[in-house]
Amino acid sequence: MGVQFLCVTSTASPKRADARKNIAAILDAATACLAVDPDASINDIAAAAGVGRVTLYGHFANRAALVAEVVDRAMQVSDAELDAVDLDGDAREALGRLLEASWQVTHRYGGLVMAAQAALPEGDLRAAHDKPAQRVLRLLRRGRREGTVRTDMPLDWQVTTIQGVVHAASGAVHRGELPAERAPGLVRATVLAALTPPGQPVP
Amino acid sequence: MGVQFLCVTSTASPKRADARKNIAAILDAATACLAVDPDASINDIAAAAGVGRVTLYGHFANRAALVAEVVDRAMQVSDAELDAVDLDGDAREALGRLLEASWQVTHRYGGLVMAAQAALPEGDLRAAHDKPAQRVLRLLRRGRREGTVRTDMPLDWQVTTIQGVVHAASGAVHRGELPAERAPGLVRATVLAALTPPGQPVP
Predict the structure, then answer these.
(1) Which A-chain residues 112-131 have CB contacts (< 8 A) with chain B?
(2) Which residue among A199, B33, B87, B203 is least packed, with the fewest CB closer than 10 Å?
(3) Which residues pair with B201 in a beta bridge?
């Protein structure tokens, strides 16, 4: 791939443009299909993208590779959105805002969260959570200094709890057990209660 | 299968006894392998059971069918243990005992929880949680009446939160992020805080 720019010619361009168009169509279709049905097959995705299976497999070696790329792209978009959340002021309030925004981006991708859990190796899933985890960690540290976040639990455990509650909400909405509009408030209230220091009143 | 008892003869018995022995060996090996490595393959499991792939596939159509049977058996054993937990007295205290016991049975099966999440359809996973969920629901209802469990959230959401926190702990221990001996206390403290009514101090 590193030498590709050396062979740019007027005849090669349309072919590469087609490939780019196909890749973009496959990724868009996969994102949409997996959001609705985490078990969507390669056939479903190829059909939705308007390409053949051979074309799809020409760009992605297998379903897991395609899911990995879709998750990677979704994480980049999500990350840019979460970067825009105002994290100044009271750490607990800021965490509440971040949780509601995190819920919105997680929910938008719906079944993709479950597709990723089923198709990707544990290590890739962890990596996908590294950057959001850093953002949460900074707020948890500030909340601990301000005395609004309990300090009798490991920080990592608190991050794990938060991810667990957000994913649990995503699953419950996807299964129709919880109306989507109730989720952000429940995630926020549940997490802030779980972080409240012993002896202090739950907000 | 329904007519099998009609052809019981002295010559048929040893064959069926062998089949039963093989099935038991495969299930034991699968439970042990998946607990250590949720991605354990059919080959790994057959080797650990001391049977060939053909024998294994003679009893289980595919890996998902084997995982489903292993999970089913694990749930039955767990269920018997959880039935033995004393759920009398203060609902919140009883919930704490139930959570610690639930953690112990979940943790014993280790990677099996992750193997199940990866291999089983969503519906089967839900069914596996139905009976434990009923036990938790009874305690939550009692806690609500006693005023120690918040009533401003749906009961189902509180069950979902509890399952999410127990599974998150199981994953964190499996990945080596959390020492197993710290998990029951953290699960208990996190869940009881999450259930505390607004305005009341966290226990």
Answers:
(1) 114, 117-118, 121-122, 126
(2) A199
(3) A201
Tell me the longest C-alpha to C-alpha distance in chain A: 72
The separation between the first and the last C-alpha atoms of chain A, rounded to the nearest angstrom, is 54
> Is the minimum CB–CB distance between B80 and chain A shorter than 8 Å?
no
CB-CB contact of B70 with B49 (8 Å): no
Which of A126, A152, A201 has its CB closest to that of B200?
A: A201
Q: Cβ atoms within 10 A of the Cβ of A97, count?
A: 15
CB B33 within 8 A of CB B85: no
CA atoms within 13 A on the CB side of A54: 0
Residue in the block written with tokens 């953290």? B186
The reply to whether residue B194 touches residue A197, judged by beta carbons under 8 angstroms, is no
Q: Which chain B residues have a beta carbon less than 8 Å from that of A203?
A: 198
Is the distance from CB of A157 to CB of B172 less than 8 angstroms?
Answer: yes
Q: The whole model's pTM is what?
A: 0.75
Cβ-defined contact of B172 to A156 (cutoff 8 Å): yes
ipTM for the predicted complex comes to: 0.74
CA distance B113 to A53: 33
**CA–CA separation, A154 vs A151, rounded Å?**
7
Q: Which of A36, A122, A191 to mutate to test the interface with B (most CBs of B within 10 A)?
A: A122
Query: How far is CA B3 from each of CA A149, B6, B8, B22, rounded to the nearest angstrom?
Result: 64, 6, 10, 22
Show pLDDT as tens, one digit a residue, over chain B (203 residues): 333 334 344 445 667 888 999 999 999 999 999 988 888 999 999 999 999 999 999 999 999 999 999 988 988 888 899 999 999 999 999 999 999 998 888 888 877 877 887 787 777 777 777 777 889 999 999 999 999 999 999 999 999 999 889 888 888 888 889 999 999 999 999 999 999 999 999 99
Q: Which among A103, A125, A137, A157 is the top mutation candidate for probing chain B, defined by the most B β-carbons within 10 Å of its own β-carbon? A: A157
